[in-house]
Amino acid sequence: MTSNVLVRNTAEVGGGIAIDDDDEEGQIILTGNVLDENNANGLDGGSGIAIYGIQSGVLNNNVLMNHPDSALMMSDGYVTATHNTIISNVGGIQLASFDTAPELTLINTIFAENGTAIDAAVGTTATLDGVLWFDNVANTYGSGYITIGQQITVNPLLAADGYHLLTGSPAIDAGVPSGVADDIDGELRPSGPAVDIGADEWLYPTSVDLLVTQQVSPEVVYPTQGVTYAIAYRNIGVGITATGVVISAEIPVSLANLNVISSGAVLIPVPGVTYTWQVSDLPSGAGGLITITALVMPGLAPQVLTSTVSITASQTDSNLANNT
Fold this sequence. Notes:
By secondary structure, the protein is mostly beta strands. It is 0% helix and 44% strand. The radius of gyration is 29 Å and the shape is elongated. The chain starts with a strand and ends in a 12-residue tail after the last strand.
């Protein structure tokens, strides 16, 4: 018998997944599944996935949780498992050697609150890279060949459902390159500069966030002395271009001989409005610098000269506190 099983995007598989292939030619592909407290057809007393006698397999973006035995029991074949979250199982992954010794490659995996995360019997092979360990009774056990690359040991900060990443999770951007283009929800992977560890990819906020800063030099001046204002601006939001951007500066009237130079985004003076510019569209991370030089008027009495600069866009800004 040759078994080829393809399971995709199943919210929950009530009896688990059991593959038993006498010919050892089958393949299993599981993508985007949540297996919660299942028993793989009773074959091994409570596993989420039980694999016997297959040739190869691919397990991507799956969650295996709350099983009364191993989340995954594997006795044969070559399986690559990428971006999986294995949490709160009596056992994590059990590699058993019967007729042939299984080989398992794990990429960007969260193991949290399991009994033993990886139990590899003699002769079996487990190769891990991009792994997050947390609060397992034991991370590894057995006499099999276990090789571990990049790893961290820290609380993954998971949502109440057990697998979605919360803001600030150390799994965010902590994975190794995987070649998997989406996550368990079908959302783009990576969302940020690098892929996340586990089945979920945390989505960076997609909003405009314009930032403007202003520095003056020197801070204490005398009549006829020169003064320089450096105005830096940037769209520090992620995933969206700021449009309709306007920068406006209120320069003290006690300054003369003003000169303006700019770099970065293109500025177009707004007709009839002093020191106000329409700025070209700002993709995420884009910005520029405006430098204004001037002289303090002669005969000026001691006082504080205040300059205010502000930036706005046509979209709603997610953080108005850094716009002025």
